[in-house]
Amino acid sequence: xxxxxxxxxxxxxxxxxxxxxxxxxxxxxxxxxxxxxxxxxxxxxxxxxxxxxxxxxxxxxxxxxxxxxxxxxxxxxxxxxxxxxxxxxxxxxxxxxxxxxxxxxxxxxxxxxxxxxxxxxxxxxxxxxxxxxxxxxxxxxxxxxxx
Length: 147
Description:
Radius of gyration: 15 Å
CATH architecture: Alpha-Beta Complex
Order of helices and strands: EEEEHEEEHEHH
Number of strands: 8
Structural class: alpha+beta
CATH topology: Nucleoside Triphosphate Pyrophosphohydrolase
Largest sheet: 8 strands, mixed
Oligomer: single chain
Number of domains: 1
CATH class: Alpha Beta
């Protein structure tokens, strides 16, 4: 079984979350947080997250605070996701780059800014599913966890 370690950002823009709306062929639309796989060349998980924010959003963030971790398992892959809350300091979508944007068959990566409140997040199909449960319980607390 392969193990994939990933980092994801609960990226706050004021009191709203920056989410990625994924539209992929043959799959219902879903939302996820920015982030991705920790590469062997990354100095740390925090460095990996900052690299992913730059690639996916052309973004930088302030201090990172680890708040949540979850595991997902399929027959051939075990995913370990670590979530950090942080505040957006800058974003320039024209700077987006990376392998996910090179192949149009990967679908769309649209950016949505959603109020960080359980009622606003509940209707969204969040992936991984445990993220939705975490945000239901803790969304209102996130803005107070980072400067």
